[in-house]
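May I ask for a protein sequence together with how it folds?
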Amino acid sequence: MEILYRRRRATAREVLSDIVGPQSYSTVRTQLRVLEEKGHVQHALVGGVHVYRPVVPRQRAQRAALRRMIDVCFDGSADAARDCLTRHFKSTPISVGRGTKDVAP
């Protein structure tokens, strides 16, 4: 999804070219098909090639992924997730837009 959000739209070959590490073309196609079945992406046929684009807003996908991680890894406790992050990651204040946020380096 990150690649599609960054590119805005991409073919399976373009997604494959952006993936770090070994991955097969057929695996990427399967992942895109599953994402489409789940309603996260859509495709259009352009010159005989499937071009995929995200349909779920990035922020909504981030919230859902974070919620799943908190549910699975921290028994649903956002406090436990926060404690783990602060214990294992040093935060650095940076200016983001109009405010300041702490982010892990």
